[in-house]
Design a protein that fits this description.
Layout lengths: L2 H62 L2 H4 L1 H19 L3 H28 L3
Helix pairs in contact: 1-3, 1-4, 3-4
């Protein structure tokens, strides 16, 4: 066996290894891309559910404290934003739904604070 035969075998092995590496890279890139696509579409609903649940809970607390009377602007602003978040989520527009639910949560917090301050000021 001459030097040229060994060189040809080695070159052939290298070519086979390179082909396998290319296929493996393509497979890994396809798998990672698929996982990213699934992850990107699957998280919106979960994040929306958590945010809207929190906003809804805070709105109930605000209502129990009488925020409708003591902080009407904040209370109704939060309530309408939560309603709009539900509409957006029903059309699977989770990005906007999350924004509306976050705004609803923020204003429900403000309504709670104002209602508590009104109770403290009235001596309750």
């Amino acid at each position: 066996m001459g030097a040229t035969d060994r060189f040809r075998r080695r070159s052939r092995k290298n070519a086979i290894v390179k082909a396998h590496v290319r296929r493996f890279r393509a497979w890994v890139l396809a798998a990672v891309g698929g996982l990213l696509l699934i992850g990107a579409t699957g998280c919106g609903g979960s994040i929306y559910a958590i945010t809207s649940s929190s906003a809804s809970s805070k709105l109930e607390t605000a209502e129990a404290l009488g925020a409708e009377r003591y902080a009407p602007y904040e209370f109704w602003y939060a309530k309408e934003h939560l309603h709009k978040a539900m509409e957006e989520a029903s059309t699977a527009d989770y990005g906007d739904a999350i924004k509306f639910a976050s705004t609803a949560e923020e204003y429900a917090d403000k309504a709670i604070v104002l209602a508590k301050q009104a109770h403290e000021g009235s001596g309750r």
